[in-house]
Amino acid sequence: MSVRHNRVRRWAFLGAAVAAVSLAGSASALDVPALKAAVDKDLDGEYGHLDGLYKDIHNHPELGFQEARTAAVLAKEMRALGFEVTEGVGKTGIVAVYKNGAGPTVLVRTELDALPVQEKTGLAYASTAKQSYRGHETFVDHACGHDIHMAAWVGTAHALVAMKSRWHGTLMFIGQPAEEMVSGAKGMIDDGLFTRFPKPDYGFALHVGPGPYGFVSYKAGVFSSTSDELDVTFHGRGGHGSMPNLTVDPVMEAARFIVDLQGVVSREKDPSQFGVISIGSIQAGNAGNVIPDTAELRGTIRSYDPAVRERMIDGIKRTANGVAMISGAPAPDVAIVEGGKAVVNDDALTERTAKVFKAAFGDHAVAEPKPGAASEDYSEFIIAGVPSTYFGIGGLDPKMLAEAKAAGKPVPANHSPFFAPVPEPSIRTGVEAMTLAVIDVMQK
Q1: Which first-to-last residue range defines the signal peptide (predicted)?
Q2: pLDDT at position 1
């Protein structure tokens, strides 16, 4: 018998074991500790497969809308579990559907894409992959943790199929492309996600972060920020670096803009309101002794409140035009591209899910006091009418975090080339939390 058949047989055994777990008809009567123990028992034998899957995906990262291999790997996993899988939804997205009688339809989302970052973790399975990004070859790394999400997503699918005697309805597992480009969710919706497939009654997604592993975090209402992409091109008149008086220096414009821009955040915005403007890319010239004609900047704008967002965008435009005027340069090109909108968790669903998390994880289930600064295009599913709970899991060693705090050292977070979630127990926590959340809303 193959390794896969052995795994399927173990999951079938788990399904029979879980059938003995005492459950009542209401969410409050769900025997969460017993159900969690049953998942853990099987994960002890199944974890090796999930760990291997995680490391394979980590070692072969792919950028947004280029995730052909990643999507194929996940599609194969889901078909082996009995899901009906459709590939190529929203270019490289996948939709896996599993029907188990009448009942609610529940969406579970994972992201497929990685980042244009050179990994520096030193891990044995570190990525050395390269792909094309904005017309240039670049290193690629799962520096955001989407590989952890994918392994937990597959593990959750395994658990739910094994426990199908405990729930009823339709599972809709989504492998979404291009989350980092803040366009994959919209792409799938535009490709008929909610017309070609069942419209979900509930939705769930998770994200690993630089908190201690074993912890789960949640928040009703606004969970994440909005994001906008900022692109500015300053124009000048190039020339010899030894004769700047004969030029109009766009690099000087860009430098002045980057510094003055922070005055918009610190002086024009209410200090009590969240708002961030960061420049992450500067492209100007190729030689040290040549003043170029143009300087191109790319950045990001983050906020929670629409009024704060508009105030910062207005300040960006005025600042860009002002520094060009000071330099006697032509007006710059300023483009603000709307990105991910704030993820707003459904209050009732999140409160219900929080009770399950508290029963499962105790003090390791923590309510977040305020929204996070990152953004996420899962918001598009919510805007399309899917009541959802988007929650977080920790991914780093608590001992390492304590030592870093005591030494006053920063800890690598998402998007850092040094960000390295610990697979075990991070994947395990993700499987536990997601499986319990889904069973809670689909229980018989």
Answers
A1: 1-29
A2: 40
Cα–Cα distance measured from residue 355 to residue 32, given in angstroms and rounded to the nearest whole number: 10
Cβ atoms of 176 and 91 closer than 8 Å: no
Which stretch of DSSP H or E encloses residue 311? helix 306-326
What are 312-337's pLDDT values in tens digits? 999 999 999 999 999 999 999 999 99
Residue 207 annotated as lining a ligand binding site:
yes
Question: 94 and 202 share a domain?
Answer: yes
Q: Is 383 helix (H, G, I), strand (E, B) or coil?
A: helix
What integer pLDDT is reported at residue 45 of this predicted model? Answer: 83
Same domain, 250 and 176: no
Same domain, residue pair 328 and 317: yes
DSSP secondary structure letter of residue 341: P
Rounded CA Rg of the chain? 24
Residue 179 structural domain: 3-224+342-442
**Would the CA dihedral through 136, 141, 143, 146 be positive or negative?**
positive
Q: Which residue has the tokens 């219900």?
A: 352
The answer to whether 180 is a known ligand-binding residue is yes
Helix (H, G, I), strand (E, B) or coil at 329: coil
Furthest-apart CA atoms within the chain: distance in Å: 84
Shared domain for 212 and 254, answered yes or no, is: no
Residue 229 has a pLDDT of 93
Determine the Cα–Cα distance for residues 287 and 15; give it in Å rounded to an integer. Answer: 65
Rounded Cα–Cα distance for residues 426 and 288 (Å): 47
Low-confidence stretches of the chain (pLDDT beneath 50):
1-27
Q: What is the pLDDT of residue 299?
A: 96
Number of domains comprising the chain: 2
At residue 144, the 3 state secondary structure works out as: coil
- 144 belongs to an annotated ligand binding site: yes
In sequence order, the 6+-apart residues with CB closer than 8 A to the CB of 136 are: none
CA angle 425/429/433 to nearest 5° reads 175
Q: What is the domain-level CATH number for residue 241?
A: 3.30.70.360
The whole-model pTM stands at 0.83
Which residues 6+ apart lie within 8 Å of 410 measured at CB? 404
Contact 226, 382 (CB under 8 A): no
